[in-house]
Automatic annotation (TrEMBL):
Gene Ontology MF terms in the entry: methionine gamma-lyase activity; pyridoxal phosphate binding
N6-(pyridoxal phosphate)lysine, modified sites: 207
Catalytic activity: L-methionine + H2O = methanethiol + 2-oxobutanoate + NH4(+)
EC class name: lyase
Annotated source species: Pleionea litopenaei
Protein name per the record: L-methionine gamma-lyase
Lineage summary: Bacteria, Pseudomonadati, Pseudomonadota, Gammaproteobacteria, Oceanospirillales
């Protein structure tokens, strides 16, 4: 059953009816394998003559329900659930690419996706070109006869760069190249790449989809043919499967996705305006602000700007660390999309292994802060940020 409104679909679409007991909540089929009534039935399952479950790595009814629910929300024919967001990224890329193939990827990417392309893909003989994903000419001129995939995320760290999905789909379709978009930061409530003609949509379900900070999971949505190909090649044989219990937690999370995301956006908008006006804050990167380059895509591609904000403090690395350490309610943690406001300082946390020059080249200054605005009352979030900003400069010179 599918309805006209995503609010209804997050609750009802893709649900498998439990005809046996009429359970409202999805049953958790916590099983590793499935029994056959006869040897002949086992044979028929393996040959494909009979539909049905065989073994947990090849399918599970609870996980299947999540896949159907996500396909309904993204507006695709099917979906494949994975054990992590990176499981979904790697299974998708390795299903689409082989040695000698070429991928054009946006140069602004989730760190582990960048590492996968830069190191493992190249190790396996896959050619990679990184380009500014906003620039249609740059993408077109990077395309080679062996280009099989165009890969991007929008919006994305560190500067919340936004990429035009209509443009990506147009380039892919004109050249017969598969387009893949990581939609983690938006969720299908705010952005549905398939509507723009994108072929495959990836999520780290760890973030907004689950939304409660207690699961690592991923999913990829697309046509039945592509999803079947991913399942039969990389999911089956590499094996990054999702556990049924995690699928159940995400199904539960999805039921409130639309109201959670709405509040994340409302809170983030107010917080971004507070930050933009604050004298100790430099640039604020949030597509909800008119000053942000991605703002033009709001209302067309994105319903709202989401819950993630990046900003640069004035002063030095030490001021940023002092700010981080003064926070009382906001949690110092990576990840995003949880009820709690999560905050991280890339220069001393995620990007600390890099040399300062490398960080600067990636757009990460010493005072850049990444904030996943939570579901607390916005006044409490702002009060915590404000007291930490006030304390961040006492006794530390404002250099830089
Ligand atoms: C977190 C994240 C991932 C990786 O997901 P995991 O569930 O941590 O494996 C991929 N892409 C984006 C945009 C993310 O934020």
């Amino acid at each position: 059953m599918k309805f006209d409104h995503i609010e209804t679909n997050t609750i009802h679409a893709g649900k498998l009816i439990d005809t046996r007991f009429g359970a409202l909540s999805t049953p958790i089929y916590q099983t590793s394998t499935y029994t056959f009534e006869s040897t002949a039935q086992g044979g028929a399952r393996f040959s494909g003559d009979e539909q049905g479950y065989i073994y947990g790595r090849l399918g599970n009814p609870t996980v299947r329900e999540l896949e159907q629910r996500m396909a309904a929300l993204e507006g695709t024919e099917d979906a494949a659930a994975m054990g992590s967001g990176m499981g979904a990224v790697s299974a998708t890329l390795f299903a689409l690419l082989k040695a000698g193939d070429h991928i054009v990827a946006s140069d602004a990417l989730y760190g582990c996706t960048f590492a996968l392309l830069e190191h493992k893909c190249r190790d396996f003989g896959i050619e990679v070109t990184f380009v500014d994903g906003r620039n249609e000419m740059a993408i077109r001129s990077a395309i080679q006869p062996n280009t099989k995939v165009i890969y991007a995320e929008t919006p994305i760290n560190p500067n919340m760069v936004c990429i035009d999905l209509d443009m990506i789909a147009r380039v892919g379709q004109s050249k017969g190249i598969t387009t893949v978009i990581d939609n983690t930061f938006m969720s299908p409530v705010l952005q549905q790449p398939a509507k723009h003609g994108i072929d495959l949509i990836i999520h780290s379900a760890t973030k907004y989809l689950n939304g409660h900070g207690d699961v690592i999971a991923g999913i990829v949505c697309g046509s039945q043919e592509m999803i079947e190909h991913i399942k039969l090649t990389t999911l089956k044989d590499i094996g990054a499967v999702m556990s049924p219990h995690d699928a159940w937690l995400i199904i539960r999370g999805l039921k409130t996705l639309h109201i959670r995301v709405e509040r994340h956006c409302q809170n983030a908008e107010v917080v971004s305006e507070f930050l933009e006006k604050h004298p100790d804050v430099g640039t604020v990167f949030y597509p909800g602000l008119k000053s942000h380059e991605g703002h033009r895509l709001i209302g067309t591609q994105m319903k709202a700007a989401g819950g993630v904000i990046a900003f640069e403090m004035k002063g030095s690395f030490e001021n940023a660390v002092a700010f981080m350490d003064q926070l009382k309610m906001c949690k110092r943690a990576v990840s995003l999309g949880d009820a709690e406001t999560l905050i991280q300082h890339p220069a001393s946390m995620t990007h600390s292994p890099y040399e300062p020059e490398q960080r600067r080249a990636a757009g990460i200054s010493d005072t850049l802060i990444r904030l996943s605005v939570g579901l607390e009352h916005v006044d409490d979030i702002i009060a915590d940020l404000e007291q930490a900003l006030n304390a961040a400069y006492s006794g530390i010179a404002r250099v830089g």
